[in-house]
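WARN no homologs supplied; continuing
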Amino acid sequence: MSEYSIVRVGNEYIVLAGDKSILRISSRRRAVKIMTLAADLLDQETVQQVEDSPSISRDPPVAREKPELP
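OK structure emitted
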């Protein structure tokens, strides 16, 4: 995950992810709240991706049907 920071520029607060500006808002409290919610969602998405990822074990073998002869 990227490093997030909030900087003040004039009357606005800018949320930075690394060195990229991703959000501009007038309230520092709202910026912190939005970034906290976004981080929580990203963490939940990461957990879901890990749970959905394929396991190391093999799938059970599947019996193939033989074609019927006329």
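The radius of gyration is 24 Å.
OK
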